[in-house]
Amino acid sequence: MSTDNIIEIHKLTKVFGGVTAVFELDCTIKRGELLGIIGPNGSGKTTLVNLMTGFVKPTSGKILCNGKNITRMAAHKIIQLGIARTFQMVRPFYQLPAFKNMIIPLYSPRVKQMLGGRYGDRDAVALDLLEEVGFERDAYVAYKPAGALPQGYLKRLELAKAIALQPELIILDELFSGLSLAEVASIVPIIEKLRQKGKTIVMIEHRLKELFRIADRIMVLNFGCKIAQGTAEEVMASEEVKNAYLGSER
Amino acid sequence: MKKRKERIDRGIKARSGDIFALSSWREMLYVAGPRLLPVILFLLLPLFLSPYWQRVMISLAVFALLAISWDMLAQSGMISLGQALFFGMGAYLSGIINHAWGIHPFITIPLATVFGGLICTLILLPVLRLRGIYFSMFTLILPLMLVRTIEATKVFGGTEGLSGMSPLPSGWLELYLIIIATLSVLFGFRRLMASDYGLVLKGIRDNDRSVTNAGINIYWFKAQALFLSSAVGAFAGAYMTHVYMFVGMPVFALDYSIMPIASAVVGGVGSFAGAILGASILVPLSELLRGIGGLRIVLYGLCLVIFIVAIPEGIFHYLQRKYQQVERWVDVDR
Ligand SMILES: Nc1ncnc2c1ncn2[C@@H]1O[C@H](COP(=O)(O)OP(=O)(O)OP(=O)(O)O)[C@@H](O)[C@H]1O
Ligand SMILES: [Mg+2]
Question: Is the ipTM of this complex over 0.90?
Answer without folding.
Answer: no
